[in-house]
Design brief:
The chain has about 375 residues and is an all-beta fold. It folds into three domains: about 110 residues, no CATH class; about 130 residues, no CATH class; about 80 residues, Immunoglobulins (Immunoglobulin-like, Sandwich). Strands 22, 23, 24, 25, 26, 27, 28 and 29 form an eight-stranded mixed beta sheet that branches. It has a five-stranded mixed beta sheet with strand order 13-17-16-15-14, with no helix packed on it. Strands 1-4-5-8 form a four-stranded mixed beta sheet, with no helix packed on it. About 35% of the residues are buried. This is Arylsulfotransferase family protein.
Length: about 375
């Protein structure tokens, strides 16, 4: 008997995280901390041994949903327990005895959408990724695991993987943790970024590029491999505190410094599930700040706008009354966090205006008065 909620719960109540798709719909990701437990009768002779003794056990299930944000309609749903036999897991059911009686057989940890709407799901504890037909829910192919549809070339095998993504030209990428069933377990291999060529005619997976770290790292969980617009690859090392950028050619297991462009380590024991490099634009919701001081017979107005990434220069306005200000200094280049704008104008009222790279106004401070 399988007790399973079939009616989807509202996002935010079912342990899923939404992300917006270009179509205006939301793809719902499994939240590893809030996946549902599904209870299954394990009394049969083929049930997992530690659960078979009691005749009743629990499996941690994962489900993918796509929701139309405009209507709230559930347009796609796929439950891994309906399609993948949990006994294919690389995590033995006996692990349930040390995890509250719940067997984490799958541990779904990433989802991606392909160019034709197909869905790519990673199941860490299966050492496998699944390409799913959105129309039928059928698994079109499985990469890795005990029933892989592909054979593997040298160094193409992966273990405990995260962040499996479609790439152009029949490739996929991932972060191959290579480690471990437990945080202190024995690793299968070094952690690394991995891009695979998939030959669908021969059903063969071969290495296209790899990205190793020097010194070697063994991440027991988490991690990602991000494709940057210029072809570089950005690697988040998961349970290890590093994040790194590599030129596209990559490197080999014994030459982790090759192609390395940038390497950083977070302080202390800080880690990040994934790490990304993106073009970030900061537009503060609050106005710029200004302070005016008298210095040696002239005034200096200090301008800053904490969080603004687009400010390239400043205008200075001054006048005898708060509501009758005029520009007394045109475009003064921004210099660091705070820019000092000297002026012979006596004010005593001043204001600064932030300008972008094209001289357009971005925001204006409150009016301040000269203090001595």
């Amino acid at each position: 008997m399988l007790l399973h909620l079939r009616q989807p719960l509202p996002p935010g109540q079912n342990g899923f995280r939404p992300s917006r798709l270009p179509s205006g719909r939301a793809r719902i990701h499994p939240d590893p901390q809030r996946n549902r437990t599904v209870h299954r009768d394990q009394a049969g002779p083929h049930g997992p041994q530690p659960l078979r003794r009691s005749g009743y056990g629990a499996i941690l299930d994962s489900e993918v949903q796509e929701v139309d944000l405009a209507t709230g309609e559930l347009v796609f749903s796929w439950d891994i327990l309906d399609h993948v036999d949990p006994t294919e897991s690389e995590v033995p059911a006996s692990d349930a005895s040390s995890s509250g009686g719940v067997w984490d057989a799958y541990h779904m940890n990433s989802i991606d959408e392909g160019p034709h709407g197909e869905v790519l799901v990673s199941a860490r504890n299966m050492w496998a990724a699944y390409d799913i037909s959105r129309r039928t829910g059928r698994i079109r192919w499985q990469l890795g695991g005990k029933k892989s549809d592909f054979t593997f070339g040298p160094n193409a095998d992966f273990y405990w993987q995260h962040d499996v993504r479609f790439r152009p030209e029949g490739r996929i990428s991932m972060f191959d943790d290579g480690c471990c069933s437990q945080p202190d377990g024995t690793p299968e291999q070094q952690s690394h970024g991995l891009i695979l060529n998939l030959n669908f005619a021969r059903r063969r997976a071969t290495v296209h590029k790899t990205y190793y770290h020097a010194p070697p790292l063994y991440s027991a969980s988490q991690g990602n491999t991000q494709a940057l617009p210029n072809g570089n690859q950005f690697i988040g090392w998961g349970q290890n505190s590093y994040y790194s950028e590599y030129a596209y050619p990559g490197n080999s297991q014994n030459n982790g410094s090759q192609s390395l462009l940038y390497d950083a380590k977070m302080p202390g024991s800080n880690i990040s599930y994934r790490a990304f490099r993106n073009q970030w634009v900061g537009r503060p919701y609050y106005p710029p700040s200004a302070a005016a001081r008298a210095r040696g017979g002239h005034g200096v107005v200090y301008a800053s706008w904490n969080g603004s990434t687009e400010t390239r220069g400043w205008q200075l306005l001054a006048g005898p009354r708060p509501h009758s200000l005029r520009v007394v200094r045109g475009r003064v280049p921004r210099t660091g966090f705070e820019t000092a704008l000297a002026t012979a104008n006596r004010g005593p009222y001043f204001q600064v205006r932030a300008l972008d790279a094209h001289g357009r106004g971005l925001g204006t401070s409150r009016v301040v008065t000269l203090t001595r």
